[in-house]
Amino acid sequence: MKIFPFALLLSLPLILNGCNTMLSSTADEVSNSKSAKPTEYIVQPGDVLTISVWKEKDLQGDVSVRPDGGLNFPLVGDIMASGKTVEELRKDIAAKLGKFVPDPVVTVIVKQSLGYQIFVIGKVNKPGAFPAVRNIDVMQALSMAGGPTPFASLNNIKILRRVNGEQKAISFKYSKVEKGVDLNQNIVLQGGDVVVVP
Hints:
The chain is α+β, with helices and mostly antiparallel strands. Helix content is 29%, strand content 29%. Strand 8 (157-163) and strand 9 (166-172) form a beta hairpin.
């Protein structure tokens, strides 16, 4: 009986070292998650972009992305913008301007993200269109819509998304996500997505 406390005392540094290792690995995971690059903004029809070329006063101004996803800019002409990140669009514009302006320094800024809207319809307290100024997942969208009504069929929610001109439906079971199960259902919504709560 007297040996046990002594053995415990000898093993105490090992236990404490194990705790420190666990704490440091958890801290590493947190710091890694914080340093992860956030999803880049995808340009949508209806967005207003500010495009400027350094030292070229005639090549700057606000441009709206048309419903077909294109935009028009001096010397560049018509260019597809929708579906591209801001950086991809900036590179495309710079490449086209390179024929007329040596080494153009192009800046593209999203002035208004009017095109990035999500829609929540059906049995929610505040159905409607919601501008998405940041990444919004399904649960957040339901919260923005005031939450489901008492008669909503929570395990039959659908997200309607148009991909390459074709509409597809993505299933969402609220009760599973609410319990912390099958969380990959809680996808980040894209501009134009419609959350249907039957």
